[in-house]
Amino acid sequence: MIADLPYEPLLEILGVYVSAMSGALAAVRKQFDVFGILVLGWATGLGGGMLRDVLIGAVPPVGISDWRLIVTAVAGGLTMYFFHPRLERARRAIVMLDAGALAIFTVVGTIKGLELGTTATAAVVVGVMTGVGGGVLRDLLTGEVPVVLHHRQLYAVPALLGSSLVVLLWWWDRLDPWTVAASVLLVFALRVAALRFRLTVPGPWRGFPQR
Amino acid sequence: MIADLPYEPLLEILGVYVSAMSGALAAVRKQFDVFGILVLGWATGLGGGMLRDVLIGAVPPVGISDWRLIVTAVAGGLTMYFFHPRLERARRAIVMLDAGALAIFTVVGTIKGLELGTTATAAVVVGVMTGVGGGVLRDLLTGEVPVVLHHRQLYAVPALLGSSLVVLLWWWDRLDPWTVAASVLLVFALRVAALRFRLTVPGPWRGFPQR
Amino acid sequence: MIADLPYEPLLEILGVYVSAMSGALAAVRKQFDVFGILVLGWATGLGGGMLRDVLIGAVPPVGISDWRLIVTAVAGGLTMYFFHPRLERARRAIVMLDAGALAIFTVVGTIKGLELGTTATAAVVVGVMTGVGGGVLRDLLTGEVPVVLHHRQLYAVPALLGSSLVVLLWWWDRLDPWTVAASVLLVFALRVAALRFRLTVPGPWRGFPQR
């Protein structure tokens, strides 16, 4: 670990648990069976990290080899399986928790990219992928177009800023538990602000004004 | 090879051939062209193994490097290309052969995971992936939601039991050609029993009874 | 580099730029947001190469680690973002440029496969994948069935012939800048001829004639 983070395992488990709930919820809505619901939880909670690990050569990815993370994802899936009628109504809380998972995954993913000795560019890319990849996998497996690509919310942009910040901190030799925690909070705050103030990114350019 | 299996190449070729037919049939139904039909055969027959190999670092996967397996998959695709009007009517036989392919791929995939020195957890996961991954790829490439996630049949569950059994046998140092054959037969028998007796896994939980 | 090609970086940048435009155009049509449009450009321009690199173990793939290629893909995406109302009308030119990208990616991808010491079979497969993989990724991410599998045009077949030719040239020890350039031109010419003369590959076989 470049920046030895005493709180990292706790953060990661929280992120996996919450993301797995989001994946399982999508599967419940599509009337998947219980196996499909748990697989969606696993793919959403751990898919971003697995994509990152395959791309940077850290195989086998922890998403298939670490039983504690798999149990966490399955627990998130089971939580949604049994309690979805109530949790559907707690949508606001889930969206906030998902913002937390985005922040955690992005920052931890960027750091893992730096540790594996990839280029700074690759660390930024895999950081964003770790943050948004689970959701992309969830959407593809449920037959949807990935929501992060077309919903026009600020979702990937906070991740991009966060992973770029982590790479800059590493460049300046300023990566420590405090700056890492600040980076997580920054991504989280940007995402929450985007939700609160309905900040959007533009759709296709409608053409330059006629001269 | 952990367990030296004299019959393994024959099993694998049979599994690839039958799975490739299942992929090519899906492509025929979607009116793909002959290139698409053969690619679907290849992706379905060899995709589960390729997913496994990429995740455990056994690259390049045999699915792209071993011409005998590729020829087998193409042969399965061509068989379906030319004979689909008759084979459509032999659906019952195809379902049984597919159960055989599931059993073979799961057990062989789990053993390959163990050989590569991954964790026991990873061996179970990649075993199931080898068994069901080709079908998932087939469904994604034909624009369908993966059937294994929502059809409520016992399909992945026999694979999960089979790959867990293989890992237990390896743990107890009891992996030999006979116990491996027994594991293949167990997965096959469970799958056939599920078909015969219409065993299902439940869909989303409908909520706890009102108090 | 097996065949030291002085013109290779230029070719690759041109291929990435044009393919990225094709991906961004698909995203514009689906009303993706600007982040989604640029991601589609990146995935289409660099996805075939990333798929190849992951399969042959050349990680991290240049598509995530080389900022020049990423900037090129983003530039292609931005070009389409701002100029799509005019570029839509230039469809004929885009199709021709896409034929060029197919030819470049296939030949360069096959050579990279040979350099990494994979089997001849794997080099042919990854060559075709490099050529058509970006388009497959584009279609999957926009919720479409991959067009290369069902459109019945000669698109993958020229790539297959081109990558086979490169492997034969390597086998005969005849791979030099001139024969490589000739291979690129061959794929391009076949693709353009297919467009010009509406050459097609057949759909599903309709059954043998009744006896």
UniProtKB/TrEMBL annotation, chains A, B, C:
A Pfam short name: Gly_transporter
Domain Glycine transporter: 10-84, 96-170
Topological category with respect to the lipid bilayer: Multi-pass membrane protein
Keyword line: Cell membrane, Membrane, Transmembrane, Transmembrane helix
GO cellular component: plasma membrane
Membrane-spanning intervals of the chain: 6-28, 35-55, 67-83, 95-114, 120-141, 153-172, 178-197
InterPro entries: Gly_transporter
Localization per Swiss-Prot or TrEMBL: Cell membrane
Family per record: Belongs to the UPF0126 family.
Record-linked PANTHER family: INNER MEMBRANE PROTEIN, UPF0126 INNER MEMBRANE PROTEIN YADS-RELATED
Name of this protein: Uncharacterized protein family UPF0126
The species this protein was found in: Cellulomonas fimi (strain ATCC 484 / DSM 20113 / JCM 1341 / CCUG 24087 / LMG 16345 / NBRC 15513 / NCIMB 8980 / NCTC 7547 / NRS-133)
